[in-house]
Amino acid sequence: MPKLPAPPIPAPLKAPPPRPGEGNGKTAPHEHAKHAGINVVDWVDERTSLSGAARWMMFRKVPKGTNWFYTLGSATMFAFLSQAVTGVFLAMYYRPDPAGGAYESIRYVTNEVFLGQFVRGMHKWGSSVMVVLVFLHMGRTFFFGAYKYPRELNWVIGVVLLILTMVMSFTGYLLPFDQRAYWATIVGVNINGTGPLIGPYLSDFLRGGPEFGATTLSRFYAIHMLLVPGLLAALIGAHLYLVAKLGTTAPPWTGAEKNPELREAEA
Ligand code: HEM
């Protein structure tokens, strides 16, 4: 049977021209390996054009006078990421069983698992770090007037992020299910119940009924591990999208918000 000619290779899929030193038959294999990472990134980018989005997000001009206070938002984000990573490792051992299983699983992580106490400590202290950072970041945006037009929506998203961060701390506190966690959560749920109008419904929802019991722990566990982390991740994405789209506010003492010509950009 006659051999059919091979179809032409589309231009974007053709091999790139050899780099200097390549293609003369003398290139050592490790020289090719040096370009492997670049070739993989090129391959993915050719099919997705993701580098455009990454460039749009990362290579932005920032206003004159930008200082260390502007790192508080990113610091909060890294605290969140650290909580997510350490939380996944804790979840590998945790059992939401109110009849002693939850307490025992936490005891096991702390005393028996390699680096368990360290990871649990990071998660426990990290939650306080995140709460402190979120307040400092909110203070920065408030005192720099970053809540004003056109960034009001980002402030509102920020308020929701603040509430969700507090919900994470509150729901996480019950999970070890020791005496302190149990009674502190009863106090917290009762405080919620004193709120106007929705208070009693909220405390019923949190308890999973009129009594504090087995359902309460499953409910707190689901809120802490699934619901709120998902919402936080999505809203942080929206928050960062708006930061990249609108740019950050210049410090108030530069006077740049009133005189846009002073908002001379620096790379
Ligand atoms: C999980 C919590 C949060 C994360 C991860 C986060 C992250 C960030 C990041 C990375 C930035 C850009 C850099 C910076 O200005 O620091 C930013 C900006 C901003 N954030 Fe947040 N944020 C959080 C919570 C909040 C809260 C609680 C508020 C206020 C209620 C808020 C309001 C704003 C505003 C208004 C901007 C724009 C700042 C400007 O234009 O100068 N954020 N956020």
Characterization of this structure:
- The protein is an all-alpha fold and 267 residues long.
- It has a domain at 68-250: Cytochrome Bc1 Complex, Chain C (Up-down Bundle), CATH 1.20.810.10.
- Helices cover 63% and strands 1% of the residues.
- The chain has helices spanning 29-34, 36-48, 50-58, 72-91, 101-111, 116-143, 152-174, 179-193, 199-207, 214-246; strands at 62-63, 265-266.
- It has a two-stranded antiparallel ribbon with strand order 1-2.
- The longest helix is centred in the C-terminal third of the chain and has 33 residues, at 214-246.
- The chain is extended.
- The structure holds protoporphyrin IX containing FE.
Give a concise summary.
The chain is an all-alpha fold and 267 residues long. The chain has helices spanning 29-34, 36-48, 50-58, 72-91, 101-111, 116-143, 152-174, 179-193, 199-207, 214-246, and strands at 62-63, 265-266.
Keywords:
two-stranded antiparallel sheet, Cytochrome Bc1 Complex, Chain C, 267 residues, mainly alpha, binds protoporphyrin IX containing FE
Topology:
Elements: H1 29-34, H2 36-48, H3 50-58, E1 62-63, H4 72-91, H5 101-111, H6 116-143, H7 152-174, H8 179-193, H9 199-207, H10 214-246, E2 265-266
Antiparallel strand pairs: 1-2
Helix pairs in contact: 4-6, 5-6, 6-7, 7-8, 7-10, 8-9
The structure holds protoporphyrin IX containing FE.
Protoporphyrin IX containing FE is lined by residues 70, 72-74, 76-77, 80, 134, 137-138, 141, 144, 146-147, 151, 154-155, 158-159, 161-162, 165, 236, 239-240, 243, 248-249.
Structural class: mainly alpha
CATH topology-level name of the domain at 68-250: Cytochrome Bc1 Complex, Chain C
Rg from Cα: 26 Å
Name the helix and strand elements from N-terminus to C-terminus, one letter apiece.
Answer: HHHEHHHHHHHE
**Cα shape:** extended
Number of helices: 10
Beta-strand segment tally: 2
* Assembly form of the protein: single chain
CATH structural class of the domain at 68-250:
Mainly Alpha
Strand content: under 5%
End-to-end Cα distance, whole Å, is 64 Å
Quote the average pLDDT. 90
Question: What would CATH call the homologous superfamily of the domain at 68-250?
Answer: Cytochrome Bc1 Complex, Chain C
What fraction, in percent, of the residue positions are helical?
55-70%
- Which architecture of the domain at 68-250 would the CATH scheme give at its second level? Up-down Bundle
As laid out across the biggest beta sheet, the strand order is 1-2
